[in-house]
Design goal:
heterotrimer, A mainly alpha, B mainly alpha, C alpha/beta, B: mainly alpha, MetI-like fold, C: alpha/beta, Rossmann fold, six-stranded mixed β-sheet, globular, ArtM/GltK/GlnP/TcyL/YhdX-like (chain B)
Chain lengths: ~220, ~270, ~250
């Protein structure tokens, strides 16, 4: 217990690093997912193929392998960047695929009738995309995107093993010097992860219910 | 929805324009690919001598052994999380309030934690509490089972809730006791229903088993790392590519199976 | 109110889904101000026919022309033509992310580039006219089916269309709401709108139609005035149909 209380400051800085890792890779993954989704719904068959191939490949390589590649192998090839930046890159490569799937599922959930109504009123393809598909698709994809972000929070822990002192990395360091307080340190870490993930999961479920009632 | 439904069917002019755009995109993609290859070649990544390593029998057999270890963890974890998940789902649906609340807390708490933390809970926590040691294999399996039990419980519950209500009532009316009712009437149907779910869980667990890397269980990823350490940095990219391809193949096969199952069952 | 000028002319139209033929050699002219009601058993292709008129369903062969202009194949010019043809769907299809008022203002602002105040005033007037003015700030999901369908009619009318297409406008409504929607449609026929109405409402067909088109198995089997059709139809298939629905 004392080991936890004495190291609250260290925990806090690990927590902040985790939040930074989540925020940066979350935003980049969303942008990557948006790009991939725009490829996926493009009329250009080549872009559709590229998007599908990216998702099929990147999603099936484990997150740990992505981070291993970025943080262990890239420096061997002469790439110089901080562990933090490399971790953001690895997580982004992996989660862009999941963000794309979340956005696509939102677009798929749009009723065919909404598109027909828009066309029948005389809107051009581009207008239908901008004024109907985008707003409805994105608001449909909020719950799956939150769930993707929760998964992302959990994956950031792996970065702790690769030298980023976020929450999990902090825990490993503290365990190294306080091996009698292993359980307390792990419980504290678990609580701090839950502070992020549980409210997010509840929010996603609440939004999903609200959307379900509205339609 | 296919992209074809998002747009009006294109006329001849639009089709011609689309072909032009495709050609332009192809040129750009090709340029990027050539640049990437040139860049990699300048770093000696593409040197044939390095890639020959993947044809060496001892490297290949090491990677395959790693793959087998990965599949062993995944298989055992899936089976165990299935059993644990079933019990938690039954607890969650129990009429005894304390049991259903406890199951709910279990599910929500475990779903919010990183798999890696759960693995460490077992790997470091088990010896700390009991004084006995635990192998890396079982620490990895137990951590994954803890994590997956939550999502399996939810899958089971959804499966039970989807059953027609009469099923279990009819069984009760016939005087079939709870366990028998479950075993012979409800469970076979529920398992059928969550089968696709089960296979996609296999994909998740296969990927998550790479976390064994962290606690020193020699699965596919750690095998790759050891091979790179042993053979030298110039072989890093070929060996990593081999590891990645093996993961992709296994996961794609499983996803395919899940897809076929869910199609056949619906 | 009718003139001899053809508003819609459908010539030799065929449509296949794979090898299945949904429309067979369809020929139909609708004159300015005419109200054509399309009847027929389900699966007869009547809904598909209605949807070919603004090319929501592409056709395999033949031509569809509006005011003598053949529907263009390119989506740009096609959408200009569509903006002059109002359509009301079975499932209402109001835009779920907009309020009732925004739904009605949407196309005039986006397609016609009308000023918002002008579009808004006109939308309010139309909502009042179909009797849902009080609901203007609600979301479609908060309205009853009958109210939604009346908003959908107002949304189509906001573009001042030359033609109105109704694709089974009351088929997904609860019985008590059918009348409120039919009343609005009848009102429109009196105002001289050119209309094609696909429906199962025989009472409506009898009183509101200038002409009945009876379809079965993808073909137009019979065309006649409502009096003729309902008192002595010529074909066996129409007789059989009427014996089931009346």
């Amino acid at each position: 217990m004392n080991a936890v209380i004495e190291n609250l400051g260290t925990f806090w800085s690990g927590f902040v690093t985790t939040l930074g890792l989540v925020a940066l890779s979350g935003v980049f993954s969303f942008l990557g997912g948006l790009l991939l989704a725009s490829f996926a719904i493009s009329t250009n068959p080549l872009l559709r193929r590229i998007s599908m191939a990216y998702i099929g490949l990147m999603r099936n390589i484990p997150a740990a392998a992505h981070l291993f590649f970025m943080i262990f192998i890239l420096p061997l090839l002469g790439v110089k960047a901080s562990f933090f930046a490399l971790a953001v890159a690895g997580i982004t490569v992996y989660f862009s695929a999941y963000s794309c799937e979340a956005i696509r599922s939102g677009i798929n959930a749009i009723g065919k009738g909404q598109l027909e109504a828009s066309r029948a009123l005389g809107l051009k393809n581009r207008q239908t995309l901008r004024l109907i598909v985008l707003p409805q698709g994105l608001s449909n994809s909020v719950p799956p995107l939150i769930n993707t972000t929760i998964a992302l929070v959990k994956v950031t822990a792996i970065a702790g093993v690769f030298g980023v002192t976020e929450l999990f990395g902090t825990m490993l360091q503290l365990i190294n010097v306080n091996d009698s307080a292993v359980i307390a340190l792990m419980v504290m870490t678990a609580i701090m992860y839950s502070v992020i993930t549980i409210p997010a999961a509840l929010a996603a479920a609440a939004i999903e219910r609200k959307v379900a009632f509205a339609s | 929805m296919m992209s074809t439904e998002l747009y009006d069917r294109p006329g001849p002019i639009a089709r011609r324009r689309a072909r032009l755009w495709t050609a332009a995109a192809a040129v750009v993609a090709l340029a990027i690919a050539i640049w990437a290859v040139a860049k990699l070649a300048s770093q000696h990544v593409l040197d044939g001598d390095n890639w020959i390593v993947l044809t060496q029998p001892d490297v290949l057999s090491a990677l395959l052994a790693g793959l087998l270890a990965t599949l062993k963890v995944a298989g055992v974890s899936v089976v165990l999380s299935l059993v644990l998940g079933l019990f938690i789902a039954l607890g969650r649906m129990s009429k005894r309030r304390w049991l259903s609340v406890a199951s709910r807390v279990w599910i929500e708490a475990l779903r919010g934690l990183p798999e890696l933390l759960l693995i460490f809970f077992i790997y470091l926590g088990f010896p700390a509490v009991t004084g006995a040691s635990i192998s890396t294999f079982w620490a990895l399996v137990a951590g994954l089972v803890l994590y997956e039990s939550a999502s399996m419980a939810e899958a089971f519950r959804a499966g039970f809730l989807a059953l027609p209500k009469g099923q279990s009532e009819a069984a009760t009316a016939l005087g079939v006791r709870y366990v028998k009712n479950l075993r012979y009437i409800l469970l076979p149907q529920v398992i059928r229903q969550i089968l696709p779910n089960l296979v996609s869980e296999m994909v998740r667990v296969t990927k998550a088993s790479s976390l064994g890397f962290v606690i020193g269980y020699v699965e596919l990823l750690l095998t790759g790392e050891q091979a790179i350490e042993y053979l030298g940095g110039q072989y890093a990219v070929p060996i990593f590519a081999g590891v990645a391809v093996l993961y992709i193949i296994i996961c794609l096969i499983l996803s395919r199976v899940s897809h076929i199952l869910s199609k056949r069952l619906s | 109110m009718q003139s001899n000028e053809a508003m819609i002319s459908i010539r030799e139209v065929n449509k296949y889904y794979g090898t299945f033929q949904v429309l067979k050699d369809i020929n139909l002219e609708v004159k300015r101000g005419e109200v054509v009601v399309v009847l027929g058993p389900s699966g007869s292709g009547k809904s598909t026919l209605c949807r070919t008129i603004n090319r929501l369903e592409p056709i395999t062969s033949g031509t569809v022309a509006i005011e003598g202009r053949v529907l263009p194949e390119e989506s740009g010019p096609l959408s200009e033509l569509r903006s002059e043809v109002g359509m009301v769907f079975q499932q209402f299809n109001l835009f779920a992310h907009m309020t009732v008022l925004e739904n009605v203002m949407f196309a005039p602002v986006q397609v016609r580039r009308q000023k918002r105040e002008i579009a808004r005033a006109r939308a309010l007037e139309l909502l009042e006219r179909v009797g849902v003015g009080a609901q203007k700030d609600k979301r479609p999901a908060q309205l009853s089916g009958g109210q939604q369908q009346r908003v959908a009619i107002a949304r189509a009318l906001a573009m001042d269309p030359k033609i109105m297409l109704f694709d089974e406008p009351t088929s997904s409504l609860d019985p008590e709401m059918i009348k409120e929607v039919l009343d609005v449609i009848v009102e429109l026929t009196k105002a001289g709108m050119t209309m094609v109405v696909v429906t199962h409402e025989m009472g409506f067909a009898q009183t509101a139609a200038d002409r009945i088109v009876f379809m079965a198995a993808g073909e137009i089997v019979e065309e006649s005035t409502p009096q003729e059709f309902f008192s002595n139809c010529k074909t066996e298939r129409a007789k059989e149909f009427l014996s089931k629905v009346l």
